[in-house]
Amino acid sequence: MLHIRRIELREIRLPLREPFRISSGVMADRRILLLELVDGDGVAAWAECVADELPNYSPETVDTARLALRDWLAPRVLGRAFAAPADVWPVLDRDIRGHRMAKAAIEMGAWALEAERTGRPLAALLGGTRDRIEVGISLGIQPTPAALVERAAAALAQGYRKIKLKIQPGADVDYVAAVREALGPAAPLMADANNAYTLDDADHLRRLDAFGLVMLEQPLEHEDLRRHAELQRRLQTPLCLDESITSLARAQDMIALEAGRIINIKPGRVGGFLPSRQIHDLCAAHGIPVWCGGMLESGIGRAHNVALASLPGFTIPGDVSPSARYWDRDIVAPEWTMAADGTMAVPLGRAGIGVTVDRDRIDDLTVHAESLRP
Ligand code: NPG
Fold first, then answer.
1. Which residues is 21 bridged to in the sheet?
2. Cα 57 to middle of ligand 1, angstroms
3. Domains contained in the chain, number
């Protein structure tokens, strides 16, 4: 039985090596909520909540997640025994709308605790089948096409298997054209708009069809499937949905409406590993490729993403950049690294999340801590 005796909640601040700009905002320091779940025998496992400081990616924030975790979600699981980690999601989700990132932090922590407790690697517990995963990089919006070309060329030389270019109106077609021209036709390029366009931009976005992108991610509004379907009918480039896919039902709707041909699964966005696996299985049954997105996680969240990305349906490289891409020093050892061939090892030789959490470093970075008990 999985028994969650207490949850230690921390907020840390981890400075990014350089600011990361997407169409809806810029981040310089990552405020991160970390959870340590502890069972009755003192076995512990860490998880990370992916909510940002501001609600510009999702309605959740670090502060709403902390409130939801402390007041509504943790009380549902503390002191309670679960036969399996898959039983945690329904308990968290019943009659509590939204707050999926907060729910996911507990849910994913429960899987990690089960892995730790039973001496199995998290990836194996989830049903992963790969021992290495393919790594992609996400490049924030740059001041000029030339600056983006420089970064994309460096990423290609480092071996990244997919290069995602953040775009927004005014920094799109010319930027993508410059990168395609410089890197050649074989470079695996995609673009991500984070909701920055409307259907009125369809003719403009159609110009991206000339560049052979692997996909265009989430061009339109985060809750809108119907207009994505309309846009997909007018574009050759496959659409990938991210923000719009918050649940299994939304993934089913995307497929039924033909609103996209690829899904970026971020376990935090959909509520955890159980919904992620359900979406993964649905997509596999419909021939829809999936890949694992990133939310500028520390090495703890990255460990969870790496485990998920080892499932068989994750056939497109994920946003699982190595630690050094974002942090001068990560909070786990060993840090996450990428081989020259653009792959990352899934730590199958170790129980739990596969890395050691650096408590001293976390203590140094902590700005808030509280202990949640039944
Ligand atoms: O490598 O972790 C990473 C970042 C990948 O671009 C990335 N994430 O829209 O997918 C996104 C974007 C993002 C980052 C969104 C931070 C919100 C916050």
1. 26
2. 9
3. 2
Residue 164 annotated in active site: no
> Where in the sequence is the domain holding 312, given as residue range(s)?
125-345
Residue 185 tokens, joined: 């036709």
Q: Is 294 in the pocket of ligand 1 (CB under 6 A)?
A: yes
Candidates 319, 327, 330: which one to mutate for ligand 1, based on the most atoms within 8 Å of Cβ?
A: 319
Question: Do 193 and 332 have their domain in common?
Answer: yes
Whether 266 is catalytic? yes
Is residue 169 domain-shared with residue 104, that is, in the same domain?
no
113 in a structural domain: yes
For ligand 1, pick from 17, 296, 304 the residue to mutate: most ligand atoms within 8 Å of CB: 296
20 in a domain, yes or no?
Answer: yes
Question: What are the pLDDT digits (tens) for 240-255?
Answer: 999 999 999 999 999 9
Q: How far apart are CA 50 and CA 52, in angstroms?
A: 6
Claim to verify: residue 299 and residue 363 sit in the same structural domain: no
Q: Is 22 in the pocket of ligand 1 (CB under 6 A)?
A: yes
Cα separation of 42 and 222, whole Å? 41
Q: What is the pLDDT of residues 80-107, one digit of tens each?
A: 999 999 999 999 999 999 999 999 999 9
Residues 220 and 71 grouped into a single domain: no
Pocket lining: 243 vs ligand 1, CB cutoff 6 Å = no
Q: Is residue 311 part of a domain?
A: yes
Q: Do 70 and 201 fall into the same domain? A: no
Contact 105, 49 (CB under 8 A): yes
With 0-12 / 13-18 / 19 or more C-beta atoms within 10 angstroms meaning exposed / middle / buried, residue 158 is middle
- pTM, two decimals, is 0.97
135 close to ligand 1 (CB < 6 Angstrom): no
CATH code of the domain in which 281 resides: 3.20.20.120
Please check whether residues 153 and 167 belong to one and the same domain. yes
In 3D space, the residue among 31, 34, 28 whose CA is nearest the CA of residue 362 turns out to be: 34
Tell me 207's DSSP state. Answer: G
Pocket of ligand 1 contains residue 52 by CB under 6 Å: yes
Residue 102 sits in the same domain as residue 150: no
